[in-house]
Amino acid sequence: CSSTTPITATFFPGDGIGPEIAESVKQVFTTAGVPIVWEDHYVGTEIDPRTQSFLTWESLESVRRNKVGLKGPMATPIGKGHRSLNLTLRKELNLYANVRPCYSLPGYKTRYDDVNLVTIRENTEGEYSGLEHQVVRGVVESIKIITRSASLRVAEYAFHYAKTHGRERVSAIHKANIMQMTDGLFLKCCREVAEKYPEITYEEVVIDNCCMMLVKNPALFDVLVMPNLYGDIISDLCAGLVGGLGLTPSCNIGEDGVALAEAVHGSAPDIAGKNLANPTALLLSGVMMLRHLKLNDQAEQIHSAIINTIAEGKYRTADLGGSSTTTDFTKAICDHL
Ligand code: NAD
């Protein structure tokens, strides 16, 4: 894409703190002169029978058409008869891999200075298949599905990511010693793909040991690929290593080249509407989206402005120990730009 041709991208501001941090992204992107036209889609107030959820069919069509989007957090309304909003997006758009880079932010001190890893989570199956039932009273069953096709697809994505992002190692995270068939198949697929990438070191790490290694020395890891539930847990653990959920971005990768970037955190109802949210995670997700679109100059400018604002320490939101509002912090980033 040339940096002067406007690109249309779908934007889901989402719920809770979503609209506040979405506004921050729009301001920063406008200040940086990013050539993006946003197509806003809000979570509906009624169930759309075509999607069986509060997400409208038109909003899904918008992502399919634009192939790129940014998503704020979405709280699934409690009740029966509809699907989780996030699950609807993943299933309908076939978002098969969730990529979560996690790195120490220069200027924001945590226990570690050298975290620089990427978790790649299988996003469509595993324990999230939604197949749960009661066998007899007092006994319930949840079915974990692992397929060869989904495992090969996410493994291929992980190795390709490693190769194209100058990474040296891929670790497959598993519990195949206990879940011999499901995680065993996942590992078999990772091994098959690893053979096609001799330049990338491949290793297998049991999940419990992985957790211990991550909190003791996160620099031991580079790219980690894993089934759905392990990815959910490990990526939040990794967010904790670098300063919390207000900082960590992600991008969902779908078939047909769809990329839907989103913050790792949820809608934070405890601070919603108070101008307290840290927009960094959504902003950095926006930066991932820009890199996906090869708008690398703008991506680097915005990334540096965020890092410099946090490192300067004058404007920080409460989750990072500061007292700035979302709008003050956003303005400081715009001033850096
Ligand atoms: P949460 O991530 O919303 O909040 C956890 C804690 O982190 C809260 O104390 C919150 O104030 C804080 N926090 C989160 N993001 C922050 C930010 N940007 N700045 C400052 N502080 C921040 O998790 P939760 O409370 O378990 O979930 C709330 C709702 O969000 C639930 O309905 C859940 O289903 C939904 N959720 C959605 C997504 C998503 O859309 N991808 C992800 C997780 C949870």
UniProtKB/TrEMBL annotation:
InterPro entries for this protein: IsoCit/isopropylmalate_DH_CS, Isocitrate_DH_NAD, IsoPropMal-DH-like_dom
PROSITE patterns noted in UniProt: IDH_IMDH
GO cellular component: mitochondrion
Gene3D superfamilies cross-referenced by the UniProt entry: Isopropylmalate Dehydrogenase
Keywords of this entry: Magnesium, Metal-binding, NAD, Oxidoreductase, Transit peptide
UniProt record, GO biological process: isocitrate metabolic process; tricarboxylic acid cycle
A Pfam family: Iso_dh
Domain Isopropylmalate dehydrogenase-like: 8-333
Gene Ontology molecular functions: isocitrate dehydrogenase (NAD+) activity; magnesium ion binding; NAD binding
Domain of life where this protein originates: Eukaryota
Cofactor: Mg(2+); Mn(2+)
Residues spanning the signal sequence: none
Protein family (similarity comment): Belongs to the isocitrate and isopropylmalate dehydrogenases family.
Subunit structure and binding partners: Heterooligomer of catalytic and regulatory subunits.
UniProt name for this protein: Isopropylmalate dehydrogenase-like domain-containing protein
